[in-house]
Amino acid sequence: MNIVVLVKQVPDTESERRLTPGSGTLDRAAVDGVINELDEFAIEEGLRIAEAHGGEVTILSVGPARAAESIRKALSMGADAAVHVLDDGLAGSDALVTSAVLALALQSVGFDLVIAGSESTDARTGVIPAMLAERLGVPQLTLASKVDIDGPAVTVRRMSDDGYDVITASLPAVISVLEKINEPRYPSFKGIMAAKKKPVRILTLADLGLSAEAAGLAGSATQVTDFAARPPRAAGVIVKDEGDGGVKAAAFLAERKFL
Amino acid sequence: MAEVLVLAEHSGGSVRKVTTELLTAARRLGSPSVVWAGPGSDEAKAKLAEFGADKVYVADSADFADYVVAPKAELLAQLVAAASPVAVLIAGSAEGKEIAGRLAVKTGSGVLTDAVDVAAGDDGAALVSQANFGGSVTVHSTVKGGLPVITVRPNAVAPSAAGGAAELVPVSFAASGAAKAARVVSREAAVKSARPDLQEAQIVVSGGRGTGSAEGFAVIERLADALGAAVGASRAVTDAGWYPHAFQVGQTGKTVSPQLYAAVGISGAIQHRAGMQTSKTIIAVNKDAEAPIFEIADFGVVGDLFTVVPQLIEEIAKRKG
Known about the structure:
Largest sheet of chain A: 9 strands, mixed
Structural class of chain A: alpha/beta
Strand order of the largest sheet of chain A: 9-8-7-10-6-1-4-5-11
Strand content of chain B: 25-35%
Mean pLDDT of chain B: 94
Largest sheet of chain B: 9 strands, mixed
Number of helices of chain A: 7
Largest interface: A-B, 84 and 98 residues
Number of strands of chain A: 13
Strand order of the largest sheet of chain B: 9-8-7-10-6-1-4-5-11
Radius of gyration of chain A: 21 Å
Oligomer: heterodimer
Number of helices of chain B: 10
Radius of gyration of chain B: 21 Å
Order of helices and strands of chain A: EEEHEHEHEHEEEEHEHEEH
Order of helices and strands of chain B: EEEHEHEHHEHEEEEEEEHEHEHEHEH
Helix content of chain B: 25-40%
């Protein structure tokens, strides 16, 4: 089975994330990059499926040169190969453009199963897996807390608004996984050494047949008009419990009309 | 006036509150037309009229129950072609975002997710406010070409009533073969709780590592019930298995924006704040005076939650008589 796992490098949540004046896009150079946390669950799920059913795991990432760090980490966890869509013209791409780029790359690489994290921790749009299923014309099995493969059939336990739905379809398909679907492995020393020799193919917009006008800020359908740091919350009243902490909290709630 | 499509969220004919919020936002952009997928529109008509729906497109097809996401996106695309709306508003639930994504691809539209406010800009087009990076930055965005497809965070827009005709317009709809590629085998409802939905609740009481155990976490449920609140949990709690993951508030869990958020035994790491920072009022109880949650709390008690919270519950009972 040909499994492609989508990986995004995102700014470390612990670092101060800023937008670039002018474009309103994320300043990715100013912060430490890490692998999107939910993507680690996607990588682990891909590796487990390949181990159980046979097949190869390819990492696909769209991002600037430094996304190579995250790609290398995914390879050190055990993925076989990677494809990095790298082009200066991609900067500032919105979800519509990013999904188009990913879909073209997936068609070029070929796949039986695409696995993504359900959202990224930076933009948090949560739309990409569904957009890919739409663009590729394959079944969408997203928000999975459990994935079962049985021959050509994929069945997932999908989180719903009020519980879970069990959904099934035939391969090829796009799935997205939730946090805690598995326990992502740590790269072993051997894995880290092996990753250095694994192939990483670079694809440009031209390789995908996309013009510069169709990508990046220029090709995006959305634009940021302005942004501002949210004013810090005014300092509140903090009291030390001296046997009456609960009473004081109730008084505050009453004053604010919550009681 | 141009139409604005609003995809209704409903269960069993009952209109979810977020739908009234979407209608309120839609009225700022044009004439709201509800899109009702599935049964129950007759029962819902009065409520939709109350919040200003002029039309209600009704597609009562079993496809919406048998298949998720894709049929609703197809229905919206069909209505976009027929009604040429100026915007489409969808609830910012996980499924709502997926529907929005598919619709955006079908119509070549820009998609803006998790709006905390929607207004008409100078040119009358939708101007969307988003609270990014865990609520630390407010961003205004527009769609520069094509139809804006917008998902709106539940509880962010205050619903207000306005009369509408809510004229029911039956729509003939059948999902394509492609939209039926992923089939629902079974549905498993979470244990029905009498508590409000986490993302729609006016008050959320969340517990963290400080509760110490699943048994200790019970005090959080008791406080929530005293306040008529939803229960949330920090990641430490769901990681430890003291409470189900579906209730996790934070960066990789749910984002909530209630009138009152009570953080109990939660230190307030950035991952948690990302999911609750836009709450209107925040109170915190924590034994560590240095806990970062106190930096964003309107009121905080430094103390042992197992003495402070029971006293608070008792005091609430007294005040509520």
